[in-house]
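User: Could you write out the 3D structure of this protein bound to adenosine-5'-diphosphate? I've included everything you need below.
Assistant: Certainly. Input first, then the structure.
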Amino acid sequence: MSDSFVLVINSGSSSLKFAVIDSQSGEAVLSGLGECFGLADARMSWKFNGQKSEIAVEGEENHHKLAIGKLVGLTEELGLASNIVAIGHRIVHGGEKFTKTVRIDEAVTAEIEKLADLAPLHNPAGAIGIRAAIEAFPALPQFAVFDTAFHQTMPEKAFTGAIASELYSEYGIRRYGFHGTSHYFVSREAAKMLNKPVEESSFISVHLGNGASVCAISNGNSVDTSMGFTPLSGLMMGTRCGDLDPGIIEFLMKKGWSQEKVFETLNKKSGFLGVSGITSDARGVLEAMEDGHEGAKLAFEVFTYRVAKYIGSYLIPLDHLDAVIFTGGIGENSLPIRREIMRNLKLLGFVEDEKGNEAARFGAAGIIGNSELLGAVALVVPTNEEFVIAQQSVELL
Ligand code: ADP
């Protein structure tokens, strides 16, 4: 254990995730969640030394502010405060302005607020978290780590939509991509596992969690990614539809669906939940499939087929392939989903390593398959976004 800890804050519209991370080992010394903000039962729970605790966040005032205020007392009570050297905030949208992690000052906070136009649910919450943390911890330097920043290396042909160019010049409509911290982390870890300098590596990183995205990474840089202007595009997800014919939106609206109903359906009632008809959770889908549920089987097939199609197409921006990297809750744990994706990649020569696929679960990294044709392997690499936030904050200090 080192003596420099970073308090990592991930502020959502009605929630706040926090963790105190050892900036050298990446271990979460303390981790917790504030939820139901804005409601009468707002509460905060945390885990420290294997023990769980929970308190109510009482008061009419801004619950983010109240919760971060309580964090000050908590870190002191647990004896962590004197080792916390910085605060790192996870911020969803950095637009074209933020291409890497930055130290926070008033101008940065104002810019994050301005980008609310692009991320109306997330950026305002991020800025509220920043302002509350500055008030609660005035002596600590604070840093912003952006989900979009890693993808700012994408070439113009990858981020430009095939639409009228004024939509970009006037409104900033283009592909931004998300999950950047995760794709960054697993590509660095994969390079270490393969004993390759990351500057000479070539990966397709596949983050499969509730949200899911694929990223082509050439010489350490993102060159294309499946999420776009919003996190709705690309792969099928827990409740999001992924790629969809935009004509469907017009069709439904002509049928009398409101804009809210259409987007609620595409964001919250699609994906695993929509196709299976039972759950957004991959584990639940797999269990139901074993019991013979037809909708669950179809959801499994659509999901794995679409991931494989993306992997195939993401060979295009690369000049060779060292590895396909699986990560995220599904990618790190689900043997049958990884198996089916590799089966779908048979023409690219991928063959499953059954023992490896069984072993690489529940936090274990490893090789789960390979392709002689491409000279590549399939890897599982557990992601650790908090660690990246802690590391980059300390590096900038
Ligand atoms: P988030 O995007 O919210 O961070 P996670 O990365 O935690 O989500 O991934 C959540 C998904 O991982 C859920 O669909 C869950 O069912 C799936 N998952 C977790 N463990 C397993 C497992 N053992 N087998 C299959 N899926 C799993």
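The mean pLDDT is 96.
User: Perfect, thank you.
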